[in-house]
Amino acid sequence: MAGFNETILMGNLARDPDIRYTQSGIPVANMTLAVNRPPKKGEQESICDFFPIVAWDKRAEICEKYLRKGSKILVRGEIQNRQYEAKDGTKRQITEIIVDQIRFCGNATESRNTQGNEAPGIRPDPRSYTQRQKAPEFNAKPDVFPMDISNVDNEVQAGKDELDIPF
Fold first, then answer.
1. What pLDDT score was predicted for residue 159?
2. Rounded to whole angstroms, how far apart are CA atoms 167 and 152?
3. Are strands 7-13 and 18-21 parallel, antiparallel or unpaired?
4. What 3-state DSSP class applies to 77?
């Protein structure tokens, strides 16, 4: 029977993404995601869990370019265990989230890189604007309809199908 291995986490980066390259030149970004758990009944403070996150290839480059410590992200991926040998020769095991999808959840000012460019596909949070722009006012008279509908009755009487709506 096939298993199911998928996780979705939302939190803030605990540190800047650390990007490295494999021997074949593939970028790998390592990050730590801090996720708050709501406090249990009767407790005052929430508990924060820290998860190691790994992004490969283009996702790694995008993370390095646009994410910083404190950036709010949503990550979808799979949990993976791996073993490695530490510098002192001991064998260690680590559980990581391997990223399939990543969404930037902060506003555009939070996700700007050092050159001031916005990350692609990020829309500013409308609540972050300091001045709200007013919607343009419609100065027409109340009895004037904004589009010409004077020939609608003539077209219906001429035998055109009423369900043949042009839009």
1. 55
2. 14
3. unpaired
4. strand
Cross-strand bridge partners of residue 76: 8, 101
Distances (CA, A) of 110 to 89, 101, 123: 41, 19, 11
Cα(10)–Cα(60) distance, integer angstroms: 18
Per-residue pLDDT band at 160 (split at 50, 70, 90): low
Q: State the Rg of the chain over Cα.
A: 27
Average pLDDT over residues 99-125: 59
CA distance linking residue 96 with residue 92, whole number of Å: 13
- The CB density around residue 52, as the number of other CB atoms within 10 Å, is 13
Say if CB 160 and CB 152 are below 8 A apart: no
Overall average pLDDT of the 130-158 stretch: 48
Are the C-beta atoms of residues 103 and 120 closer than 8 Å to each other? no
81-93 pLDDT tens trace: 999 899 999 999 9
Tell me which H or E stretch contains 94. Answer: strand 91-104
How far CA 52 is from CA of 46, 65, 100, 157, in Å, comes to 20, 19, 14, 70
The one-letter amino acid code at 144 reads V
- Contact in structure between 76 and 100 (CB atoms under 8 Å): yes
